[in-house]
Structure formats: C-alpha cells, structure tokens
C-alpha cells in the first residue's frame, strides 16, 4: 500500500524519499519532539535527526523552541510540509478505497486490524519481536 502512495506522490514531490515518511507520517501540525517521532516510528533518534535535517533543507519542516520546555525543539511542518502531508493522506485514502472496493469493506477492515496487530507486535522493545 505504501509503495502505491509513494508512486502516486513521486511526481509532485521528487525530492522527498520514502525514508522521509518516518517523520512525515507521524508529524503533528503543531509539531513533535524528535524523540517522540523516534518512538512513534520505531527509528533511532540519530536516524530521525538526519531525516529532520534533510526535510528542513527541503523546506518541509522547521525546528522551533518547545513552549513547554525552551531547551527542547519541536519539529514543525511548514506550509509546504503541510501540503505534502495532506497530499499523502489523500493518496492513502484513495489506495484504501480502491482496495476496499476490490475485496469488500469487511475483508479490508479485517486486513487492517490484522496488519495493525502485526505492526504492534513487531515494535522494538516488544517481547515477541526478534
């Protein structure tokens, strides 16, 4: 599913790479700390830091002081970043609609539940992950 979304977005966002999804997929409009993005995505903090550097260079995010703790920084999407996030959400919704239409809503919902469970089981730190 994600490859279908990536192909759909590739033309309009040629500079972004699939790896940038580790940040953009979890980014709130108001911003997140890099440590939170690392936890949500299952990536190491150093990897997230590199991705944020790349996204900042592309003009998709900025680093701003966290109002709750001025020592910390929030990764905040720019207007271009918000537009890309919206385009990604719309592309994913389109893929989901096509898949649900192809196999039926009930089967698609069951598939999503199973996929979510597998993702939860494979998160780092989970006793069942290898």
From TrEMBL:
SMART domains: HTH_MARR (SM00347). The keyword DNA-binding applies. It comes from the Bacteria. Keywords: DNA-binding, Transcription, Transcription regulation. InterPro entries: HTH_MarR-typ, MarR/SlyA-like, Tscrpt_reg_MarR-type_CS, WH-like_DNA-bd_sf, WH_DNA-bd_sf. One of its GO terms (molecular function) is DNA-binding transcription factor activity. SUPFAM superfamilies: Winged helix' DNA-binding domain. This is Putative transcriptional regulator, MarR family protein. The lineage of its organism: Bacteria, Bacillati, Actinomycetota, Actinomycetes, Micromonosporales.
